[in-house]
């Protein structure tokens, strides 16, 4: 199996916390779409003979580009071959006409950035939609026939409290969405939010409160019948994101567009520059990796999931080192061992970075 990721690098505006590559230069849309089509023709062989199982349009905000441009891309890609076909959208772009078009083009899954269901929290981080618009967008997507909807929430937003977090979480889960991605707010270098923090205009939410929000998230998602299958991801039975899961289990995928990453069938990773002009001129380049780099990548991605790491897939010497490093955490209960498998319990996922760091070669 294999996947295709299409990076659409356009947004109406940049959210205060976002460090993904995007631009408001919608006038460059046609040039980028042409570049993606050429790139697909040139690089599709990187997947070998593996059938394409998933296609994911991310960004940026794919829902903000012109419908005819989106249609050109969909007609060129093997949409009918893939069983999961996802498009990322923002609530302000969702109306019955667009939702109907997305279904017609073959998308059967939508991932929507909600982030909060309190207008003041949305405004604090530069989101353009309102809480009511997000809830209406879910209804519109349902009306268009989407039965696999994923929504994003963020906890630790400026001014957010445990009560407002629980309100957003409970209200969103009550809509019956099939998948939830929930992230702890990060202050990334170069973002507007980090500049506001450094200027003293906002205060970060206390770490203990963030930990309580995470506990609420785990509890409420479980009560709603969702499986916590990756640090930030929850799904109803049968609704795990197949595409994102491929990143964590080493399935090959072809990344198209500026800023996209790829893992070829031969194990070679490629990355495209975060610059439209540079990408159009040179395309993606090979990322130099050592054997140790690849092993560490396996450790990190596997331990992010509920399934965990099968140490049997590691070379013998690496397996010995990882198992030895894991012993103190197993004794403390921060890692659980079943045969050759290691996994981090849900209650310790918030400190998973520290655990994984000590297991790396």
- The gyration radius over C-alpha positions equals 21 Å
Q: Give the strand order, joined by hyphens, for the main sheet.
A: 7-8-6-5-4-3-2-1-9
The total strand number stands at 15
Mean pLDDT: 96
**In whole angstroms, how far apart are the ends?**
29 Å
Shape: globular
Q: What descriptors fit this protein?
A:
361 residues, alpha/beta, 13 helices, 15 strands, globular
Describe the model:
The structure is a single chain. The model has no long low-confidence stretch (mean pLDDT 96). Helix 1 (29-43) runs parallel beside helix 2 (67-76). The chain starts with a strand and ends with a helix. Helices cover 39% and strands 19% of the residues. It has helices spanning 29-43, 67-76, 96-104, 119-124, 131-143, 162-173, 192-198, 207-223, 242-249, 276-282, 291-303, 316-332, 352-359, and strands spanning 2-8, 52-59, 84-89, 109-115, 149-155, 179-184, 227-230, 233-235, 253-256, 261-263, 269-271, 285-286, 309-310, 336-338, 341-343. The chain is globular. Helix 6 links the parallel strand 5 and strand 6. With 361 residues, the chain is α/β, with parallel strands linked by helices. The chain has 13 helices and 15 strands. The chain has a 9-stranded mixed beta sheet with strand order 7-8-6-5-4-3-2-1-9, with helices on both faces. A 3-stranded antiparallel beta sheet has the order 10-11-12, with no helix packed on it. Strands 13-15-14 form a 3-stranded antiparallel beta sheet.
């Amino acid at each position: 199996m294999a996947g295709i990721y299409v990076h659409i690098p356009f947004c109406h505006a940049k959210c205060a916390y976002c460090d993904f590559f995007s631009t408001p230069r919608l006038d460059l849309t046609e040039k980028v779409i042409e570049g993606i089509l050429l790139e697909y023709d040139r690089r599709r062989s990187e997947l070998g003979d593996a059938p394409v199982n998933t296609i994911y349009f991310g960004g940026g905000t794919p829902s903000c580009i012109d419908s005819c441009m989106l249609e050109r891309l969909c007609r060129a890609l093997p949409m009918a071959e893939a069983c999961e076909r996802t498009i990322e959208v923002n609530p302000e772009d969702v109306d019955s006409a667009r939702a109907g078009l997305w279904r017609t083009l073959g998308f059967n899954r939508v991932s929507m950035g909600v982030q909060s269901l309190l207008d003041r929290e949305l405004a604090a981080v530069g989101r353009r939609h309102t809480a009511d618009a997000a809830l209406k967008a879910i209804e519109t997507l349902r009306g268009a026939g989407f039965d696999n909807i994923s929504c994003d929430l963020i906890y630790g937003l400026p001014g957010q409290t445990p009560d407002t977090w629980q309100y957003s979480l409970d209200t969103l889960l009550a809509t019956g969405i099939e998948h939830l991605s929930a992230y702890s707010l990060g202050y990334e270098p170069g973002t507007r939010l980090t500049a506001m923090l450094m200027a003293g205009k906002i205060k970060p939410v206390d770490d203990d409160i963030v930990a309580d929000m995470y506990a609420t998230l785990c509890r409420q998602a479980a009560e709603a019948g969702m499986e916590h299958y990756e640090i930030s991801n929850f799904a109803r039975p049968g609704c795990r994101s197949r595409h994102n899961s491929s990143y964590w289990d080493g399935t090959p995928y072809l990344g198209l567009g500026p800023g996209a990453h790829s893992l070829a069938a031969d194990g070679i990773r490629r990355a495209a520059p975060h610059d439209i002009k540079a990408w159009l001129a040179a395309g993606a380049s090979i990322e130099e990796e050592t054997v140790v780099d690849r092993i560490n990548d396996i450790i990190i991605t596997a331990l992010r999931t509920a399934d965990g790491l099968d140490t049997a897939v590691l070379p013998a010497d690496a397996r010995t080192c990882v198992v030895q490093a894991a012993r103190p955490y197993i004794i403390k209960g921060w890692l659980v061992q079943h045969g050759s498998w290691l996994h981090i319990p849900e209650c310790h996922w918030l400190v998973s970075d520290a655990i994984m760091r000590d297991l790396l070669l």
